[in-house]
Amino acid sequence: MTGDRVALITGASSGIGAATARLLAARGMRVVVNYLRSEAAAKEVVADIEAAGGEAMAVQADVREPAAVAGLLDQVRRVWGDVDVLVHNALTPYAIKPFQDMTWDELGGKVDDEMRAAFTVTKAVLPGMTERRSGRIIYLGTGLSRRPREGMIALGTAKAALTQFARYLAQELGPQGITVNVVEPGPVAETRISHVLDGEQAQRQIAATPLGRLALPTDVAQAVAFYAGEDSSFMTGTTAAVNGGMAMY
């Protein structure tokens, strides 16, 4: 199921998104590296993929905006056709603070941004997938949606909504040959939001992890690639915890 398959990775200029773009390209997919502001970083990911013999393009779009996403897909279709694999990884901003210090705009705004982006990109790729009766949709969640951590209520609540959204879609879209799954990382090193854990917190997380380290973006990318490929063809509505055993469910 590789060959000329087209994979769209949102928020792919760095971290998990960039690692996923490189891996899917290495496995033979044509990769769309979506970004919001980091044009240079996105073009660097594309250059890396092309240097390794793969095919990639960088396309700017705010995935919360239907017109921007429609423009992105028009650009992709002109060159490669419809999207076969959607990896929705783009992370919208969120407040890190206790609930008692938080405004409704901070909590509700994050939930709205999270769901608006997932809704928009999913709506946009579905016509092509349903026409072919084939597709893979993978959402990036977080272990914080199950296991709370201080200050992370906005992100954890928004991602919990995303995970339940994915289950409903899996049920509805299964008869059309489209699978929908979620990858839930625990703490991940070497990303733009790694600073959320200071040195002492990171050490506590590592101590609580049976495999003895934090995840790297490539660890998460490998779980995404599994869901994007043929080996997961009879799996939908599932959640993969990529956390080194820190939480088991």
UniProtKB/TrEMBL annotation:
Signal peptide: none annotated. Pfam families: adh_short_C2. GO terms for molecular function: oxidoreductase activity. Keywords: Oxidoreductase. Belongs to the short-chain dehydrogenases/reductases (SDR) family. This is 3-oxoacyl-[acyl-carrier protein] reductase. It comes from Kutzneria buriramensis. The lineage of its organism: Bacteria, Bacillati, Actinomycetota, Actinomycetes, Pseudonocardiales.
